Amino acid sequence: MPDGSAVTPAKIQFFESQKKIHPKAVSGRYRRWKTILTWVLLAVFFIAPWIRWERGPDAPAQAVLFDLTTPRFFIFWIEIWPQEIYYLTGVLIVAALGLFLATALAGRVWCGFTCPQTVWTDLFVWIERAFEGDRAERIRLDKAPWTAKKVLRKTGKHAGWLALSVITGFGFVAFFTDAPRLAVDLLTFDATYEAAGFFALFAGMTYVMAGWTREQMCYYMCPWPRIQTAMLDEHSLVVTYDTLRGDTRGPKRKSQSWDERRTKGFGDCIDCGQCVQVCPVGVDIRTGEQADCINCGLCADACDNIMVSQELPKGLIRFDSLAAQDTRAQGKTYQWRLIRPRTIVYGLLMLVITGAMAWSYALRPRLDIAVQRDRAPLFVTLQDGTIRNAYTFKVSNKTRQDRSYTLAAGGIAGAEVKVVGESDADSGSAVSHISASPDSVATYRVYVTAPRESVPDASTPVTFQLTDTNNGDRDSYKSVFLAPGSK
């Protein structure tokens, strides 16, 4: 500055402080669908761990159990072993494709109706409304000074939040351990540190995420609002405001007729702000499509109620597509298309992957083996000149009965198999016998000995063949047999 005075730099705010959103209660068809889906999803979440499913002796009797100690995933008659993790991969891929398909059809409809963050936030808002009243009353209460009545109402709200959080925490952990036993252990303070820790973690995170952060989870932590734009096309149904019909918007006096209002250039929107007040994320849909909109349709319900009170047609705010808006603007009739290239691709991929997993599971063997050859030493030359290799042999018995098997090594003439710890380990024969307990993985130390002339090369293919002595089920595993090789 010419006068030498210092210039104070302007402060730049990198993060906008949270403006608490008080969504207003609303009634309508989308609110009814949200309520129905909420109760259905809560019923599945809380009831599923308590359903019993008999699987036989020494097997968990919980219908849905993700047992990390065994480890096994049990879903009614389906049992997934750790080495079958590809089934979980397939489920995740199908779920992602289903999300893409839902977005291509109706935008963030998953977020608005079935996302756990949305469902639990809805419940917490309902508890808040029960203790503190609807939107206007809650705003007044927050601004009012602290009195005994305010403390009582706030305490009741947080007590309700904590109670729901505790029940939710139990519900999460119950999917990973026996639900009745977990309930008894928690009530008697006899739960393991792991169970108690995860119970406290899930309960605490539910209280924070659904009670305090709410829409901030969608704004700053969830990546889907930013990804969904690539999933949409011109035929995707999203919540939109009909600007041609609604604008120019402005308040309407009771004495003012609609004809008079329209001659002045006003549209059907009376700028009541109800669509913003009921929005759980504080979006004003009238400013255009926004990534933060979760497509819950509550603003459409609120607007429809206003339109009915004004004796105007519903649908000023509705689920609509860009193609429909452009077509109607041209005075033409629009026909929404369910079948289009991206929905066909998503649907076919889901069908193919689901079918492949179902086919693979239906034909999966009840017997599975894995072999790992010792690397130190690579081989041992015995006194009689024969060559010996050592292997770690694992057999997975996926049945509920004890099984006995015969083990042989094929591909090498005169090869003998010895299993350490078995009764015939010292007999030295081409076939050995092993066993496996029900629903378990049996591990054995196996020696394969071959004449020097049968393994002239440094590496010779060998195939382990395992046969169930009861039903004839077979499985094989290809490995290699190492030897000094020809000089």
From TrEMBL:
The keyword DNA-binding is assigned to this record: no
InterPro entries, sorted: 4Fe4S_Fe-S-bd, 4Fe4S_Fe_S_CS, Cyt_c_oxidase_cbb3_FixG, Electron_Trans/Redox, FixG_C, Helical_ferredxn, Ig-like_fold
4Fe-4S ferredoxin-type domain sequence ranges: 260-289
Keywords of the record: 4Fe-4S, Electron transport, Iron, Iron-sulfur, Membrane, Metal-binding, Transmembrane, Transmembrane helix, Transport
UniProt key word Transmembrane helix: yes
Cross-referenced PROSITE patterns: 4FE4S_FER_1 (PS00198), 4FE4S_FER_2 (PS51379)
Segments passing through the bilayer: 36-53, 85-106, 159-176, 196-213, 344-363
Superkingdom in the source lineage: Bacteria
PANTHER family listed in its UniProt record: FERREDOXIN-TYPE PROTEIN NAPH (PTHR30176:SF3)
Protein name listed in UniProt: Cytochrome c oxidase accessory protein CcoG
